[in-house]
Amino acid sequence: MRIRQSLGVLLGLVAVLVVAESAVSLLSPAVDPATGGAELSRFFTAAQLARADGYRDPGRWIAIAALMVNFALLGAVVAGRPRRLRFELAIAIRRPILGGALVGAALFASLVLALTPFSLLAHQRAANAAIATDSLGGWARDRSIALALQALGGGIAGAILVVLQRRFGERWWIGATVATVAFATLITWVQPVLITPLFGNEARLGDPRARQAVLELADRADVAVDDVFVLDASRRSRTLNAYVSGIGASRRVVLYDNLVEGLDRRELRAVVAHELGHVKGNDLWRGIAYIALVAPFGLAFLARALRPLLAGRRLAPGTAAAVAPSLAAILALAGCVEITSNRLSRAVEARADQVALELTGDPAGLVRVQVALARRNLSDLDPPGWYQALFATHPSPIERIDAAISSDPKAAASEAGPSG
Ligand SMILES: [Zn+2]
Q1: Which of 113, 318, 322, 378 could bridge across to 165 with cysteines, CB 3.0–4.6 Å?
Q2: pLDDT above 50 for 419
């Protein structure tokens, strides 16, 4: 009986992953294949390549170790003995919704705490490599904000789960799907307004030439942009980035201050055009559509798989005590599914590069910015294929350079060799 049950869970999991893969294929934009045949040695010196490898090789293993700790903790909560965890406080018995919120907050906060040593290690390594520029105190402050936000999110999720299981019984997954999609949409919407300001300050861009360049590109892309802002990212890191936030008339382009100071006009245009490419490709909506397609299958599967598990431990659905294994199972499944969504992310990023090339008509500018970015961030220049396929959210630097060269080999050919 137990073997049959486990087999059923395994088959269900495979089915959910097949659905997720299909959703990725359905939502991935078409991207022209790159045929430039670019080689790393043309753009980076042996010393630069060695330095990037020295930084990124251990970095990958640290990331994998953190992921394993994350899954081990979730697995322990799903399979563990609730008597030993004893989340069920007196208050939780009498007030299940409040109890669910407390359990959810405790679970999410524990995950952040368990992964904090990895975050600290990554920060120290980035600081040693002169990529991160903030102090240990700055890191601790950011980490505390992240902890508070996660606890808040976990609290909301726990309370909602109790309400749904009480209200809809076995069909709680339908309500949970609606809640998940609504939450993803809400976060996408409020992130730039409510969450980004917690981690940095945006100010209107003073430099009139950079401002003009951005607005001109937006005009060419036919994307309504209200204003251009600069984020004081240099307090934290030397990373070069930009993003487009807001909707409708309040849409704004935000540039990292590193970008305004560190890049010339062509490079700046290449970065901004990429971000406008995301707007033109409706990429935020693609992300939400992906969640809307996968969530019902994933949650329906979990609702079924959790039933015998909770019954075996005499945990009634809709109680605070049932929230811990239920939420942990949802997080673990989301973690597995996320791996499939990375393929969608890479396709979306490659497509944004392509739109950027159409907008700027300057493949050499894009190549230059990729080279500058990779040198500055000590980017993972040569990740193993399996790592790139499972975890990368962007095409690798050389893939992006290759795509730019493929689009117009002559124009890109003028580009710099390894220097600086
Ligand atoms: Zn992008």
Answers
A1: 318
A2: no
Q: Ligand 1 centre and the CA of 361: distance in Å?
A: 18
- Both tokens assigned to 335: 């973690």
- What is the rounded CA–CA span in Å between residue 364 and residue 416? 9
Asked if 348 and 278 count as a contact pair (C-beta separation under 8 A), the reply is yes
In degrees to the nearest 10, what's the CA dihedral of 355, 360, 363, 368?
A: -110
Q: How far apart are CA 205 and CA 405, in angstroms?
A: 31
CB under 5 Å of ion ligand 1: residues: 349, 352
3-state secondary structure at position 255: strand
- Separation of 148 CA from ligand 1 center, angstroms? 27
Instruction: Give the distance (Å) from ligand 1 centre to CA of residue 394.
Output: 8
Pick from 152, 157, 147, 155: which is nearest to 111 by CA?
Answer: 147
Per-residue pLDDT tens for 20-69?
Answer: 999 999 999 998 877 777 888 899 999 999 999 999 999 999 999 999 99
- CA 242 – ligand 1 centroid, Å: 9
Within a domain: 397: yes
In this structure, is residue 172 part of a structural domain?
A: yes
Q: How far is the CA of 239 from the centre of ligand 1 (A)?
A: 14
Classify residue 419: in a domain, yes or no.
Answer: no
Given a contact cutoff of 8 angstroms between Cβ atoms, the answer to whether 236 and 200 are in contact is yes
Nearest to 302 by CA among 40, 115, 74: 74
pLDDT class of 382 with cuts at 50, 70, 90: confident
Cα-to-centroid distance, 246 and ligand 1 (Å): 16
Question: Can you tell me the mean pLDDT for 133-143?
Answer: 89
- Residue-wise pLDDT for 354-364, tens only, equals 999 999 999 99
- The parent domain of residue 62 ranges over 2-413
Cα–Cα distance for residue pair 199/192, rounded to 1 Å? 11
How many angstroms separate the alpha carbon of residue 276 from the centre of ligand 1? 9
In a domain, 282, yes or no: yes
The pair of structure tokens assigned to 137 is: 């105190």
Distance CA 418, CA 416 (A): 7
Distance 303 CA to ligand 1 centre (A): 35
The single-letter DSSP state of residue 134 is S
Torsions phi, psi for 384 (to 5 deg): -60, 145
pTM, whole model, 2 decimals? 0.88
Q: How many domains does the chain have?
A: 1
The model's pLDDT over 161-210, given as tens digits with 9 standing for 90+, comes to 999 999 999 999 999 999 999 999 888 877 777 777 787 888 888 888 88
